[in-house]
Design brief:
Elements lengths: L6 H7 L1 H12 L4 E4 L21 E4 L3 H13 L4 E4 L15 E4 L6 E5 L4 E4 L5 H10 L2 E2 L11 H6 L7 H4 L6 E7 L5 E5 L12 H4 L8 E8 L1 E2 L3 E9 L2 H13 L6 E6 H11 L10 E9 L1 H16 L5 E4 L3 H12 L1 H8 L2 E7 L5 H15 L2 E7 L4 E7 L8 H18 L15 H7 L2 H14 L14
Helix pairs in contact: 2-3, 8-13, 9-12, 13-14
This protein binds flavin-adenine dinucleotide.
Amino acid sequence: MAEFGSDAARLAQGVWQDLVAELKVNCPNSELVVGAEIPSAFLTDFIGSDVGAADVYVKASSTQEVSLALRAAYKRKMPVTVRGAGTNLVGSTIPRGGMVLDVSGMKRVLELDEDNRTILVEPGLKLCDLQALVESKGLFYPPDPAEKQATIGGNIATNAGGMRAVKYGVTRDFVLALEVVLPDGTILELGSPCLKDATGLNLKHLFIGSEGSLGVITKCLLRLIAKPEATAHALIGFKSLAEGISAVNTIYAANLAPTAIEFVEKKVIAFGEAFVKADFPLPEYQAYLVVTFDGKAESLAEQLSACRAAIAAKYQIGFLPLTDPEVAHNVWTIRAALAKAVQASGVWEPVDTVVPLKDIATLIDDIAALSAQEGVRILAFGHAGDGNVHLCILKDDLPLEKWPDKLERVLSQLYARVYELHGKVAAEHGVGRHKRQYFLERVNPDELKLMRLIKHSIDPYDLFNRGCGYDD
Ligand SMILES: Cc1cc2nc3c(=O)[nH]c(=O)nc-3n(C[C@H](O)[C@H](O)[C@H](O)COP(=O)(O)OP(=O)(O)OC[C@H]3O[C@@H](n4cnc5c(N)ncnc54)[C@H](O)[C@@H]3O)c2cc1C
């Protein structure tokens, strides 16, 4: 790994002043902040407990200025941490020196092609703004990660998933082309507006989910579809989480094609209810699935009733079609606020595992046993329809000095089990700084070697998102 040196050494070398002078000339429209002046909000992730340090913060205004800023960093072998909205939960925007390159200000919509159903945007556009714009034109961008303040560039860099992945797939499935800037400042267009492309290696896919390790995404051409005519939701209450999780396979076996199947335990709901100050219906049950169907309006009632019949044949359930707008609003607001509600309650660790569908119930049982054995509360919710189990491990009143060891014990056992079930450390949040240890412990060494070979061919000085993911 190339050494960048200590803070004091860099100061003595005059690296900051020299770099800042160059950036002031070459990037006049970008915002610059230096050293201790950089607000801590730009040096952390959503959790905010680990605040890093950087030498210079650059809020970029254009591809050209991104390229010139990167050239300046490359010349000095200065590490670079790329930043969107900073809503990641894995520490991937916590710098340990060098440059923070923030692209959240590059948020223009460059072209909405309604005939071709594509949209060309800059990476800093927020997901909520993209969704609102395309839906106002009768179009639809299906990826729907819960955090709507995240940027499209961040969604692409993490290959974000979300609730509608069950029916439509993840962010990767809707990216047609990207403009990227490589660590040495080279600007490159990858992919094409064509729906099919078997022309050489598809390098665009390397950048999707690369967590800022290969360069900066500066333009995104996204595929859209026609907006579904209608959407219907139902809340299904179960006597236990295990029954709720098992019912997911019942839904698929009935040949139904839901848009989303979310699961949540009752004990997590209490956090959401207190946080958003609303009531969750069917309080007599212990766990819930929220199912969504979309499509032609006349088909939805039939799908909901087939879903109810299939599940009721096997389990004792409460089934509530979410037709009352206020009740539906409460259910979705509480579901969407869960991570924020847990965050507001104290110290916690988010987990984003995924296992094959048939093993979710086993994993949930094993987690309950682990929670009892270690004496820590572990709350579960997530995207049951695709095996993506989100966990919140709570510190509660364990003394802070005992938390890191306890957490490591819990996580080591948890991920060992996940891998036994052929699952993965990260389903949609990425590896970042926080999951790196557990990823490195289990990744196939030849696969890791190949990842690093690719990385070094693009980023030979190992400057980008150092200390995160598969970085060596
Ligand atoms: C309450 C809550 C709910 C969430 N729910 C979901 C969910 O349902 N599904 C899901 O997938 N995620 C979810 N997330 C995680 C997070 O929102 C996503 O990872 C999101 O994609 C991050 O986008 P961002 O703009 O905040 O990126 P950041 O957090 O700023 O960055 C994330 C990573 O992408 C890199 N990056 C950012 N922009 C670029 C760029 N232009 N070029 C190259 N690299 C870049 C960064 O270096 C970093 O490695 C949730 C987070 C929160 C707080």
